[in-house]
## 1
Amino acid sequence: MKDLEKLTVEELVRLISPNSDIHKELRKREVIRTKNITGELGEYYVVQYYNNTPGQTNLFLPGPGVKNIDVLSRNGERCSIKTISGNNRTTGSFWNPDSIKNNEKTFEYLIICILDDYYSLNMILELTWNDFIKFKKFNKRMNNFQVSVTQKLIDEVKVVYKKS
């Protein structure tokens, strides 16, 4: 491989761009399907962990066009997966604020995948719908909800995996 220190920023970005060999290989292995690499890696790690850990339910991807759901459990439970990485401690957005305000359950579980600075799996948290309702925060400017990962949240929800 090239001496990375000698490459420009643009050349480095091309190594991870959608046309790069790395990106193509991750697509071929069905690790990523979209341009949201962080989110896709999180979904991959979660599915792999659940499906390869005794005592955890198996997860699978729903068909195309399913809204607000990233995976389904073997028992038909709907799960939303949000991935955060590095120093970011807030999940991506939940864009169905009216449903959430009316407590219309759009998923049974929220699974938060936390990656370290090197995109390796650091922690998996599992929140029930009631946990989600308790910890959600409304973003008035964006008209959506998010969840902040705090020590209080970690202490109160199910920690499925934590890197030792």
## 2
Amino acid sequence: MMQFRRRGWYKHKRIGKSKRRMVGWRKPKGRDNKMRENRKGKPPIVSIGYKKRKQGQRIVKIYNTKDLENAKKGDVVVLGRVGKKNKLEIAKRAGSMGIVFQNINIKKFLKTEGKNESK
């Protein structure tokens, strides 16, 4: 597990070396702060992408309708980069199979595409 610590916590007794409550994350805000600038060799800053995946889950990327057969219950299903025509086919098939995607709302997508087709 990634631990995000306040900048300079290891230097000062009053903000971290012996006081765990003070070690907590504070965003670096200084003008010349190397950590804020994401310099090489400096500790990471809290940002999107550090979320821990739940135990036992595997990510399944879907690029076509054949890939839907690989998805099992409990998997994290992600729709890959596909065109609108292929995405429509995948969404219809996944809706009938009961597969839930993490990065697309199937019902909403099919509803908007149904409106677009009628126009």
## 3
Amino acid sequence: MELLRSFSTPIYLSEIKGSTFDNVQEEISSCISKLDFSMNDDWGKTHFMSDINFTEHMFGKHSLTHLMDAIDRHLKRYMKEIGYEPMQEYHYDSSWVALFEKGNYGHIHDHGAVDISGVYYHKTNGKDGNIFFESPNTNLASSLPFSHLSNSMTCEPKEGRILLFPGWLKHGIKMNETDDTRISLSFNIYFNNERHGKN
């Protein structure tokens, strides 16, 4: 018997470890001390962000080279796993820092037409707000034997953890109910092609 698994939405999950992790954490800590955080007004002041307009490539502006090198390695692995080879050149559409204090959360949203979105967890106690992804196949809920497959999936934050996923995939962040601050770095990537007119 063979079960064909079609129309899947692969989400990449891995961790940055060892000396690379130490270097990434150090450069992020140095950068964060220079940032001004504002409440995200568009989402009803649910959490703090370094760029509420998503117009800035913060990683490049603050030379987070260790982080970008690590993202590059994981992005290549992700693209290899889904069969996107040879991988085209890419650029960052935007990147920013998100800060979640007690009571903060993130509404369900997507990142639009970007090719890949991602998040890196810099500071977390692991219980300060899981990310969750909504199933893109809402039709599953209309059929009783498949309805349990239409639920959202969650992932716990962990320092050094990196997630990569399609920009159109709807996701949100559970409320931080702890007294600790959670800090994550998010980004959007375009591959250079005529479809986007990006080069």
## 4
Amino acid sequence: MTIKAFLFDHDGTLVDSESTHLALWRKTLEPFNVTISNDDYLSFFLGVPTEKTAEILCKKHNLPLSSESLVCSKVNHTRHFLTHSYFPKMSGAGELLIECASRLPVALVSGSQRFCIDATLAGHQWGSLFAYIVTGDDVLNNKPHPDSYLKALDLLGVRGNEAITIEDTESGVKASTSAGIRTVAIRNQYSLSHDFSKADVEVANLAEAKAWIRTQLSS
């Protein structure tokens, strides 16, 4: 099947944001004398949308506030961080995006809020590379549900087997493959324990992802 579009995840795939998100979650939980260990974050919260993470934390620690209020606090901390900074790009991200965008339409499909994506696009000057952007704000059911990927496919006007997705978490791979999209899973330092069995191929970094994508375009 001919490839007609590329879809990219954001956090952990294009930008190195996970350590920052963990630090911001810890700051959010400080008033309740609760913290998240590195292992717990990697095992249970990596790639999980903010809303779901808040639900889990509120229930697990019996926090004296609603999950919606916890989300608001985390979002406020994140907004403050992004007013003076933005997430650093992953090695090879800019080069891969430019190459993909020069060949076919590219969509960004993220579980994050729109303001996080806007900060990345402005900071790295990537806005012109994406034909469409779908964030967690744009769908009712966030990853690992396929809604965001199905919406992106609809916007691009392509079928799942006509596209390739690059993801870095089990949650993202499940969302993409559930939408019928060929998926490249990047197993990095954060996702060592994640189940990538549903992915079409597993790689260690974006350079390896680029090499595999080239084979698909030439086949």
